[in-house]
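Protein: DUF2971 domain-containing protein
Species: Pseudomonas zeae
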Amino acid sequence: MLGYKYRAINQYSLETLQNNTVYFSPYTDFNDPFEFSTPFPNLPIMYSRASTELDILHKKGILKTPIYLHLKNICEDIIKDGDPKLDSIHYKIREKLKTVGIYSLSSVNDEILMWSHYADNHKGFCIGFDTLHKNTTPQTKSFPVNYRNTFSDLNDPDIVIKFYTDIFSKYRHLPPRAWQAKSDKLATILKKEDDLRGGISVLTDKYHKWSYEQEFRLVDEKTYGVKKFKPKCLKSITFGLRTSEEDKLKIIEICKRTDKKHVIFFQAEKSRHSFELEIVEIKA
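Structure follows.
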């Protein structure tokens, strides 16, 4: 799947073509202050909700008494002990997020609003990348944006209940010491998976009114900044309704002399029948 980057024509966007580089931004550079605001998990809250849910499941006869009592004890221990390192953990996560690099792309190259907002009122251009995340740094991953009315619920108790129900059912035949070792090992795996789920939600939750962008994000977990990409992954360039002939020729010439002769060029044109753009291939 191609990912598209809408750009105004300026020094920085032309450097993308000339130098085969893109800039992964820190989250603090994003224009929406609600971005990256999803609350982190809070174990006492999660297990308190899990305890309430267990009561309901037990009363309905869905959970048998032995497993119910076992899970209630786990929940009560965590609720009682709390999480004294919670503030410190959340601070460390926030500090880590400040070093993460993010590059936003769209799944479409014909969105009128994006041409207006990000491509200098249709005077810019739109770059089409193919698997850019595989052609920058090894640690870069691609995630679709999750458009929502509310933040993701990272204290959802269902995951915890399912996890402990499964391991109780599968391993309760083990001797106590072996059971505890298996339980501890799997709990560590659950925490890693939960941390990953939380991290992805924080990085990809976005207010649903932005959904027209059809965004997905490339995330470099180590650092933000300029990243080199392989020229072969730049597949197309689409010119806007108002892109000047001078700018078109400039961009075509840059591609020809920087190992990107394979690039296919398109022109955005007004539809005659609706408020839409038609993307037409042109010869360069």
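Remarks: The chain has a mean pLDDT of 88.
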